[in-house]
C-alpha cells in the first residue's frame, strides 16, 4: 500500500521554531526524549527548533503530536436546577463524613460575553525596545470593540504600511540595543537598517512570523556581531565611552564580555525575554544560556560594586535600570525613514539580480567561446631538439680515390659513355 501526499497535507502546520522549543519545555521533555520518540538524533531535533530544517512525512506527524499543546478544558455550565440541588444538599446535615465538594463555577451570562483582558504595553520602558510580548498584540481598528472580527468591507493594511508601522515602532529602540551590543553608533544604525532591508525582501515570511520584531532583532544582532567588521577601518575600534564614571564602568564591562555572553545578558536583562526565548534566539540550550547569564552578571558585578552586594532578583532589576539609563543617555544616530529603507532594499535586490543575470550571461559566453576555439582532436606537441651522442658512422660506398675519379672522367668523355667495343658500328 503506497502512501499519498495527502497524508502530509492532513498534518496541521507546525508552529514557529521558537514556539516548538517552548512547547517542548512546557511539557518537560528533553531533546533526547523527543528524538527517541520520533526516531531521529538529538542534532535533528535541535535543527528543527532553530529553524534550519523542518520534519516531513511520518516524523512530522509524530513531532506535531508530541509537542501539541494540551486542549483547554472548558468549565461545565451549571444550570439553575443543578445549582438548586447542590445548595439543598449542602444545607442538609451530613449523615456521614464526606469530602467537601469543590465550588461550582458560575455560568457565564449570555448577555455579557467574556472580554479579553487588556494587553500590557508593547514597548520596553527601559530601552524603548519592543519586548517579546509584542507578538501577542493585534491591531485594533478605531471604532470597533477589541476582540471582534474584522468586517469584510474594512480596509486591510498594505504590506508597505505594515512594514512602516513595525519600523517606526521598533527601529529607534533596536538601534540603542545594538549600540549596547557593539559599542559603535554607526555600526548599530547600519545593522538595524540592514536587518529591516532583509525583512522587506522576505516580508511574506516575516509578516506571518509569530514575533516579527524578534525576527528583525535577531537579524540585526547577527549582522552587528559579525567578525568581518574588524577588517573595516570605520568599525575597527569602539566609540568613546560615556564620561560619567558609572555608565563608563558598565560600558567597559559589557564590551569586555564575549559576544555570546553579552548578547545573552542584553536579551534577558535589557530586552526582557525569558530564559527559554533567550536560549532559542542565541541558538543555545537553556542550561547553557543560564550559565552564560550568571557568568556575565558576575563579570559586570565586579565593575559595579552596587551589584555585587545585591540579591539575584535585585541584581536583575538594577541591571535593567543601568542598561536602560545607558541606552537613553547616549546619543545614537536616528535611522533613516522607512520608505528610504524599503527603496534601498528594492534597489539592492535589483542590483543583485542584475549582477546574477550578468554573471550567468558571461559564463555562457565564455563557455561558448571556449567550445568554438578549442581543438577537435589532440595534437601531440613536438619535443624540443636534443644532441644525441654515440651514433655509428654513416654506411654506404667509400670516398672515390684520385684514380677512380680519373677513370670516371674518361668514361664520361666517350660518346656512348663506355668502351668503343660495346658501341655497334653502323656501315
From TrEMBL:
Residues 90-99 have a biased composition (Low complexity). The keyword Membrane does not apply. Residues 21-55 form the HTH cro/C1-type domain. It comes from the Bacteria. Residues 1-36, 90-157, 376-401 are annotated as: Disordered. Residues 100-120 have a biased composition (Pro residues). InterPro entries: Cro/C1-type_HTH, Lambda_DNA-bd_dom_sf, RNA_pol_sigma-70-like, RNA_pol_sigma_r2, RNA_pol_sigma_r3/r4-like, WH-like_DNA-bd_sf. Keywords: DNA-binding, Sigma factor, Transcription, Transcription regulation. Gene3D superfamilies: 1.10.1740.10, lambda repressor-like DNA-binding domains (1.10.260.40), Winged helix-like DNA-binding domain superfamily/Winged helix DNA-binding domain (1.10.10.10). It holds the Pfam family HTH_3. Belongs to the sigma-70 factor family. ECF subfamily. PANTHER family: RNA POLYMERASE ECF-TYPE SIGMA FACTO, RNA POLYMERASE SIGMA FACTOR HI_1459-RELATED. This is HTH cro/C1-type domain-containing protein.
Amino acid at each position: 500500500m503506497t502512501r499519498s501526499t495527502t497524508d502530509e497535507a492532513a498534518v496541521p502546520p507546525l508552529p514557529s521554531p521558537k514556539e516548538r522549543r517552548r512547547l517542548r519545555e512546557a511539557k518537560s521533555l528533553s531533546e533526547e526524549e523527543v528524538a527517541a520518540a520520533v526516531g531521529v538524533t538529538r542534532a535533528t531535533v535541535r535543527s528543527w527548533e532553530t529553524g534550519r530544517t523542518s520534519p516531513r512525512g511520518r516524523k512530522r506527524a509524530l513531532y506535531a503530536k508530541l509537542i501539541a499543546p494540551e486542549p483547554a478544558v472548558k468549565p461545565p455550565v451549571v444550570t439553575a436546577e443543578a445549582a438548586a440541588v447542590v445548595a439543598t444538599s449542602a444545607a442538609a446535615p451530613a449523615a456521614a463524613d464526606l469530602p467537601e465538594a469543590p465550588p461550582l463555577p458560575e455560568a457565564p451570562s449570555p448577555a455579557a460575553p467574556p472580554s479579553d483582558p487588556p494587553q500590557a504595553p508593547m514597548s520596553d520602558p527601559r530601552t524603548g525596545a519592543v519586548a517579546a510580548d509584542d507578538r501577542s498584540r493585534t491591531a485594533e481598528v478605531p471604532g470597533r470593540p477589541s476582540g471582534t472580527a474584522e468586517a469584510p468591507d474594512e480596509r486591510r493594511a498594505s504590506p508597505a504600511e505594515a512594514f512602516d508601522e513595525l519600523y517606526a515602532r521598533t527601529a529607534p529602540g533596536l538601534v540603542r540595543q545594538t549600540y549596547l551590543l557593539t559599542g559603535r553608533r554607526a555600526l548599530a544604525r547600519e545593522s538595524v537598517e540592514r536587518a529591516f532591508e532583509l525583512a522587506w525582501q522576505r516580508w511574506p515570511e516575516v509578516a506571518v512570523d509569530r514575533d516579527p520584531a524578534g525576527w528583525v532583532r535577531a537579524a540585526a544582532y547577527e549582522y552587528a556581531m559579525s567578525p568581518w567588521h574588524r577588517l573595516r577601518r570605520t568599525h575597527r575600534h569602539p566609540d568613546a565611552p560615556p564620561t560619567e564614571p558609572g555608565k563608563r564602568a558598565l560600558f567597559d564591562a559589557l564590551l569586555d564580555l564575549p559576544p555570546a555572553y553579552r548578547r545573552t545578558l542584553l536579551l534577558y536583562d535589557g530586552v526582557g525575554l525569558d530564559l527559554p526565548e533567550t536560549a532559542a534566539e542565541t541558538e543555545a540550550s537553556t542550561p547553557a544560556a543560564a550559565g552564560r547569564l550568571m557568568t556575565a552578571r558576575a563579570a559586570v558585578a565586579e565593575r559595579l560594586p552596587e551589584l555585587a552586594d545585591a540579591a539575584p532578583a535585585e541584581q536583575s532589576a538594577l541591571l535593567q535600570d543601568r542598561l536602560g539609563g545607558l541606552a537613553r543617555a547616549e546619543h545614537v544616530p536616528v535611522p533613516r525613514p522607512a520608505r528610504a529603507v524599503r527603496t534601498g532594499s528594492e534597489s539592492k535586490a535589483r542590483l543583485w539580480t542584475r549582477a546574477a543575470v550578468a554573471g550567468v550571461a558571461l559564463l555562457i559566453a565564455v563557455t561558448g567561446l571556449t567550445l568554438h576555439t578549442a581543438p577537435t582532436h589532440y595534437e601531440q606537441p613536438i619535443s624540443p631538439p636534443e644532441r644525441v651522442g654515440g651514433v655509428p658512422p654513416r654506411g654506404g660506398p667509400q670516398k672515390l680515390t684520385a684514380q677512380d675519379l680519373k677513370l670516371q672522367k674518361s668514361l664520361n668523355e666517350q660518346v656512348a659513355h663506355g668502351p668503343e667495343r660495346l658501341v655497334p658500328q653502323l656501315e
